[in-house]
Amino acid sequence: MEEKRGLKNRGYSHADVDERRTAVEKFTGTSLENISKYCFDSEKASKNIENMIGATQIPLGFAGPVIINGDNAKGEFIIPLATTEGALTASVSRGMSVINDGGGARVRVFQDGMTRAPVFRTNGLDHCAEIMDWIGKNTELLSSVVSTTTNHGKLTSAEPFPAGRNLYIRFTYETGDAMGMNMATIATEAVCKEIENHTGAIMVSVSGNMCSDKKPSAINMIRGRGKTVIAEAVIPKDVVEKRLHASTESIVETNIRKNLIGSSMSVTLGANAHAANMVAAIYIATGQDPAQVVSGSMTTTMCENVDGDLYIAIRMPSVEVGTVGGGTRLPSQAEALAMIGCLGDEKAKKLAEIVAVTVLAGELSTLSAQAAGHLGKAHQELGR
């Protein structure tokens, strides 16, 4: 089917895409008329995909506006959401409107660092200890090696985890406004060669799964990966009752029994109503790696009754986003980022704060609907 092997790393034209799609149509006996329609430059898109035959379109809507009082995101924002799940955008918009009635959301990035954790084969425990000692004494050397691979990345820590003849080193990097996974991988490979040369350790894999990338993991829940973000809001009692048709007590109880106890009973990583819904919608809209939704799903939602008012907060330990590179280069995704002022340099923390507030709004709305017994009704009324 694919005869133009030489195009692998050079991009390709619309003609190449058309030829490839025609071959797929013949092979599968399927007309791909709608897949053939797209508005971006296929040669530029070749940086994001191989064997391109067209594009899949997902409906794009918006939620908000929402008032955000963040360290990086300040003001009113309309949030782009790409989803095929009816009622999701309406629900998030409702949550945002209620948050506005309470004066807006407060949000802050508490930690920022992308990780990569290679696994080495060693000769045993003594060898592990020798390697760990060498790494501890040569952090400046390893940092200089990292600087040869990137102008933006910086090594901030190297944490060892020995296990028999295995030695895992969890490297953490500052990655600027890139999500940073590729940057961290390239830098780690260079660092590992240096470790091998000086210690005799053998790198088995640049990823030993203690990173932990694109998998739910306790280490990311506790230590964080990407950006650790916390968002909060206080909803006055009268707003809860008039706008959400519930009580502060019922929402707090729902959160405890559903999110905290229920999640504990099922041993989920995270304790939330549906954080992945909002994460997926904004990630797809803005050109993030959709696989990182798994990390966004490890959100913990907290509710308290504070003198009758509803205090609601979420902790997202692993918001892995970027505002340069990757899918952010595609035109539709770039426009969505521009909508929220997050396109380009010095914007990644701002985007992470906006993601967290969007999740907060969705959690508020869904918990309220469940506390009031309206979740099924809302879907039914919206014809979903």
Structure overview:
With 384 residues, this protein is of the alpha+beta class. The chain has helices spanning 14-28, 42-45, 88-101, 125-137, 139-147, 181-199, 218-223, 237-243, 248-266, 275-286, 293-296, 331-339, 348-372, 375-381; strands spanning 60-70, 74-82, 105-116, 119-121, 154-163, 166-174, 202-205, 226-235, 300-306, 309-319. Strands 1, 2, 3, 4, 5, 6, 7, 8, 9 and 10 form a ten-stranded mixed β-sheet that branches. The model is unreliable at 1-10 (pLDDT under 50).
CATH H-level superfamily of the largest domain: 3-hydroxy-3-methylglutaryl-coenzyme A Reductase, Chain A, domain 2
Q: How many domains make up the coordinates?
A: 3
Structural category is alpha+beta
How many distinct helices?
14
Main beta sheet: 10 strands, mixed
Task: Round the Cα radius of gyration to an integer and report it.
Answer: 23 Å
Overall CATH architecture of the largest domain: Alpha-Beta Complex
Mean pLDDT: 94
**Order of secondary-structure elements:** HHEEHEEHHEEHEHEHHHHEEHHH
* First and last CA, distance: 40 Å
CATH class of the largest domain: Alpha Beta
Uncertain regions: pLDDT < 50 for 5+ in a row?
1-10
**Strand proportion:** 15-25%
Shape descriptor: globular
Topology-level CATH name of the largest domain: 3-hydroxy-3-methylglutaryl-coenzyme A Reductase, Chain A, domain 2
Helix content: 40-55%
Number of strands: 10
